[in-house]
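User: quick one, fold this
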Amino acid sequence: MKKILVIGSMGFIGSAAVRYYQNQGYAVVGCDIVANDKMIDYFKVETKEPNYNKVFKEVSPGICLNASGAASVPFSFDHPLTDYELNVINVMRMLEAIRISSPKTIFINISSAAVYGTPLQLPVREEDDIAPISPYGWHKRQSELLCNEYANLYGLKTCSMRVFSAYGPDLKKQLFWDLYQKTRKGKVIELLGTGSESRDYIFIEDLVRATEVIATKGLLEGEVINVANGIETTIREAAKTFIEALGWDGEISFSGSKRKGDPENWCADISKIKEMGYNSDFSLEAGLKAYCRWLQDLQQL
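Assistant:
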């Protein structure tokens, strides 16, 4: 049976990956910094200086998906050192553990489109210039370079996924969660920006399926791969689609103010992952309907 280790298995992407790979017949091992009595095969590691050597020596997984780390641009501005430790140092700890204890493991690192900053042209390709505008973006880029380093110098099989705007059940932050919270407080909502800013949204189930596509069909030579749907959607359009799925009939306005570190426009060139056989199963409309069903179930708890 194929074995995968999911580091960050209690988080948004990690928990979805655990469910997906279990359904695909993998032997799934979880790893995170919090206790988990629901998984039989699970390692709890320390927040400071986690011992990944022990984990990889015991598990020796065929695949390791790194879905751990900090994932907040504002947090990275306020706590750059902590963000660096979580998104860079810990990745090196994992790579070192693989090099020493499990050199045949395929390492899939979750990076971010934040490495691009605000691209000069769209859709943005993996070969385009890197210009992060937040500590988070810079640190994700450094994690990519580490994966490339260990692939080139030590022969490890690595790849970094530049994930664009992921959303779906269990995500309790970012645009759609914030919109949902505001719809419960009144009939008039104000959002940051102008509404013309854009993102390339990917539903969580598409994202975790993409991790398997890359692990099984990627070059695994330290390369980076855009993971998105290749569709540019303005924040205004995304908000409208969401409130329609939610069945809310209020009004949305935009303040014009911007948050430090937020890019203007994103759309990914996904030619590379499509060449591997990836295709999206969820349109934004379908994904948001699924997300709204989860929100409604959550409200009933």
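User: anything notable?
Assistant: The longest helix spans residues 80-101.
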